[in-house]
Amino acid sequence: MYKVIATDLDGTLLNADHQVDPFTVATVRKLESDGVQFVIATGRHFCDVAGIRDILGINPYLITSNGARIHAPDNTVIHADDLPPAIVQRLVQPEVVGEHGRVIVNLFADQAWLIDRDAPDLLKFHQDSGFTYEVAELLSHDGVDIAKVLYIGDPADLATVAANLAREFGDTLYVTYSLPDCLEVMTSNVSKGRALQVVLARVGVDAAHCVAFGDNMNDIDLLETAGHPFMMNNANPDLITRLPNVPRIGNNFEAGVAHHLRKLFSLDDELMA
């Protein structure tokens, strides 16, 4: 009945240290060997997710930058949707970000993560992949080849940025939170759910045979697209309010996805030694 499994990473498949655990690795490898197709759907950069995929040891489709990029299991790009360069140049301006300078600005280029300052604390989120940023002068960037703009900061500061974006760009951008302190911006054509539809069409599987897992606001239409959506118990309360009928499962820090998959596929739910 279940032919495709689509899952978010942070707060969902990854543990509290933003890493994969051995129980999850064993579970996804077993299911793939049984013929189930995996799809990783995340706001992370492709280069970052490729490293995590290698540790998982499976061959999933990769939906990255919240759907701005889709890669086949062989790393072939099957979909790309960049922000218009002129808009990117506007998105890094102090009038949008805040003259106070507290918000960290990031650009996700095709092969690079660009950031406006050194922020070593962010690297703890990328221990498995080893992916790292390049400090750059974003105000002089030409805006070309950018899939996503990421703002990191205090939720109150990000709320002001979101208001600025809504006032200036309206519905021409897709603006969403991946964490309370992470505000992400893509073109309005982009979302995890739309990307999942592309993948499902490519593999010839109806959404009724797709399972999906998520925990935050950028997972809304991923969960709405899949025929069998599940929400983490540690999900953002706003997501719970938005999708009250989506069943909640275990926590990410207790391998909740792996345990639930073992129930769905009737596998022995035992921790590996």
Structural commentary:
By secondary structure, the protein is of the alpha/beta class. It folds into two domains: 152 residues, Rossmann fold (3-Layer(aba) Sandwich); 103 residues, Hypothetical Protein, Haloacid Dehalogenase-like Hydrolase, Chain: A, domain 2 (2-Layer Sandwich), CATH 3.30.1240.10. It is built from ten helices and 13 strands. Strands 5-4-3-2-1-12-13 form a seven-stranded mixed β-sheet, with helices on both faces. Helix 2 runs parallel beside helix 10. It is globular and about 55 Å long.
Gist of the model:
By secondary structure, this protein is of the alpha/beta class.
The shape is globular
N-to-C order of helices and strands: EHHEHEEEHHEEEEHEEHEHEHH
Q: Treating each run of at least 4 consecutive H or I residues as one helix, how many helices?
A: 10
What's the gyration radius in Å?
18 Å
Cα distance spanning the termini = 30 Å
CATH class of the largest domain: Alpha Beta
Which keywords apply here?
32% helix; alpha/beta; 273 residues; 10 helices; Rossmann fold; Hypothetical Protein, Haloacid Dehalogenase-like Hydrolase, Chain: A, domain 2; 6-stranded mixed sheet
Q: Secondary structure elements and their pairing?
A:
Blueprint: E1 4-7, H1 9-13, H2 22-33, E2 37-41, H3 46-56, E3 61-64, E4 69-71, E5 77-80, H4 85-91, H5 94-97, E6 104-109, E7 113-115, E8 134-135, E9 146-152, H6 155-169, E10 173-179, E11 182-187, H7 192-203, E12 210-214, H8 220-225, E13 228-231, H9 237-242, H10 256-264
Helix pairs in contact: 2-10
